[in-house]
Amino acid sequence: MCNSRYDQGMKVRRAVLGNAHVDRAEAAKTPFDEGFQNLITEGAWGTVWSSEGISQRERSMLTLALLAALGNFDEIPMHIRATARTGASKQDVIEAFQHVAIYAGVPRANHALKLAKQTYAEMEAEQAAD
User: Fold this and answer.
1) All residues at 6 or more sequence positions from 52 whose CB lies less than 8 Å from its CB, including other chains
2) Cα–Cα distance between 80 and 93 in angstroms, integer?
3) 104 — alpha (psi -120 to 50), left (phi > 0) or beta?
4) Cβ neighbours of residue 13 under 8 Å, at least 6 residues apart?
5) Which residue numbers delimit the Carboxymuconolactone decarboxylase-like domain (predicted)?
6) Are residues 83 and 95 in the same domain?
7) pTM given for the model
8) Are both 65 and 114 inside the same structural domain?
9) Which of 40, 45, 60, 96 lies in disulfide reach of 86, CB 3.0 to 4.6 Å?
10) List of residues 6+ apart from 2 with CB closer than 8 A
11) Same domain (yes/no): 4, 38
């Protein structure tokens, strides 16, 4: 697929998630989910994440808070890993999840923190192995 929003989306997606993640996702794409994957690349990455209205650091914090608040826990590790590229610190993530605790519920924030701790530990182990 070639259009400017898709191309911009792939550029930002790679910058935020890393080439290895995007390459794995692209390799797993099939005709069944290709349209959906294109929608995400154009809409999420080519429009929302490409907007200059707020920084990628702020976008990471919002994304993590929304994922936790809505109970969409499967994508939290991916977005924790993305903080290494967006500039959101561990303290930023803690602050975002504290907001979740107050406004959306302690159990969701608690689970999100558990996932973040596990993911940060994996990232540190991977970095030490390199």
Assistant:
1) none
2) 8
3) alpha
4) 22, 41, 45, 49
5) 36-117
6) yes
7) 0.92
8) yes
9) 60
10) none
11) yes
Q: DSSP letter string over 54-66? A: S-HHHHHHHHHHH
C-alpha span between 57 and 34 (Å, rounded): 29
Six-digit token string for 103: 């406004």
Final residue of a domain: which of 51, 69, 90? Answer: 51
Instruction: Give me the residue label for tokens 């940060």.
Output: 120
Encoded tokens for 119: 């993911």
Report pLDDT digits (tens) over 9-49.
999 999 999 999 999 999 999 999 999 999 999 999 999 99
Q: Is residue 114 located within the same domain as residue 65?
A: yes
> Are the C-beta atoms of residues 64 and 78 closer than 8 Å to each other?
no
Give the total number of structural domains in the chain. Answer: 2
> Residue 1 belongs to what domain range?
1-51
Residue position matching structure tokens 């976008």: 59
* 44 plus 58 within the same structural domain: no
Hey, what are 104's tokens? Answer: 């959306």
